[in-house]
């Protein structure tokens, strides 16, 4: 995110009044080339994705975004259900993960006794290091059957009048994908939040406690407002991860394309998961349609990034703090 | 300044290493280009991959000194690779369709291995090889028209079997695969509705069910879901002791997939088209002699250009693979040997390669 600023500053301003050293020149060259390389790479990827999807765009146009058919036999393709699945699983995971992550972060910064912080922090961060394919396999073999037998039927019988808690047959469902994604983005949000909470000046916290507020009021009145922008950015980062996760989701979501349904306890599909699943054997118009899916995903990521930048700047300005 | 001097030294070092690496890459590049005359590269079907890269490749290399490099990238990709001539041969479980054959510009398609796929179930209280189905009922299950295991249509085929009142969970492959091609090819022959509504391909638009990634994904789903039915490669069925389903063939027998029954399906063929067309042996014709023929057997094909610089090398490799010894050597992977009729037709096709 900050690559542009860094290169712009160092590359443009000559060090006036100083002798130019070879080392400086080389540093400038190497760093500049690296930065330029990153920019060119993004450009090339975008170009390749757009070029690859051209056939599908010219065939289906915007109808691709509203059709739910994926039929290689009759060469009909659409991604509405994939877009829906992507958004529902990502937002669902964000809704579940955020309160959990904030709880973890608060516990580790404010509540936990010192000897517990180190190990718990390390373990939570290890969660982020588990390869997604491992989480996916665990999701299929362990989590899915447990959710199917012990969670979904209970939710269905208690809250079945809400369409999202429908009947379940397998452990491969939207809900399983949401839980798996929650586990994957939890450490991202919690570790950033923990850093932010640690960064709250202790004078502020002590002043609040000195006024006689309870610990919860201090958290609500001092820590949360102070860290608000950063937490929002952490959530967006988690959202970005959830949107693009392919392998773990492909393993647990049931990979079913077709009419959009509200039932979270049924199978569905997401853009990233379907690209990962189908790209190996797709050819011709189908391959181009997968590129079209990739293009949609790229636009999503771009929007998410822009949103994150906007939130960070906006909140920073409001609080009179330098943007990070 | 000392720091700058150090930086220069480091940079020079890095550049030197880079130059050496580049030189090494160039040299190995030249070296491999020189030896490429005795290397055949192929790509495609993952079904035939264990046979080609696991058994035939090493054996051919030690017997004839010709290396065979095979990439398991999927049948569809294999067809594209040979169409673009980026490999010496392609491999596909689904025969070339008309458009693909035209695009491939005079490609020769040779059946070189024989395998199968088969349905598996997980019904509480039902063991392997107990459940019997007909193609028509299987099609209705996969169309979503029969949705419960105690449906009269299933009960009528399984008198004496205690079928539970349980919803059927249909499981299929989510990734494109030769297994799906064979399975849908069979259902297309059995059911008109299936043929028009769904059709046959390596990936289809499934009317119902849930997808599993690869044979492993399908079998994991079937095993963990009571009341489910799926289909996997016969190699996988046998290896993982899944509950096989017996299917009714045209000869009126309930059969299950094995090297023997797959071989019978191919032996039931009376003649093989001499052109380079595909040969479908799903739902084999009724014969007295091969009454136990399996219903979802398939040839898998090697696809080579009719004219290529390595024509002679390709010819001898394919003829070697078609020989009985090589066909026997892959039986442990549940490939059945090609029947004589097909092997002879295949050798005729090999002659078209220049």
Q: How would you explain this protein's 3D organization?
A:
- The complex is a heterodimer of chains A (324) and B (354).
- The longest helix of chain A is centred in the first third of the chain and has 39 residues, at 22-60.
- Chain A has a two-stranded antiparallel ribbon with strand order 1-2.
- Chain A has helices spanning 3-12, 22-60, 80-111, 114-129, 132-159, 174-198, 202-210, 215-244, 247-252, 271-278, 284-319; strands at residues 70-71, 76-77.
- Chain A is built from eleven helices and two strands.
- By secondary structure, chain A is an all-alpha fold.
- Chain B is of the alpha/beta class.
- Chain B has helices at residues 2-35, 49-64, 75-83, 98-103, 135-143, 152-157, 178-190, 192-197, 214-224, 234-240, 259-267, 311-322, 324-329, 340-350; strands spanning 39-44, 67-72, 89-92, 107-122, 132-133, 169-173, 210-212, 228-233, 243-244, 246-248, 254-255, 297-305.
- In chain B, strands 1, 2, 3, 4, 6, 7, 8, 9 and 12 form a nine-stranded mixed β-sheet that branches. A three-stranded mixed β-sheet of chain B has the order 5-10-11.
- In chain B, strand 10 and strand 11 (254-255) form a beta hairpin.
- In chain B, helix 12 (311-322) runs antiparallel to helix 14 (340-350).
- Chain B is elongated.
- The termini of chain B are far apart.
- Mean pLDDT of chain B is 86; it is low at 21-36.
- Classes of the chains: A mainly alpha (324), B alpha/beta (354).
- Chains A and B meet through helix 2, strand 1 and helix 5 of A and helix 1, helix 3, strand 7 and helix 9 of B.
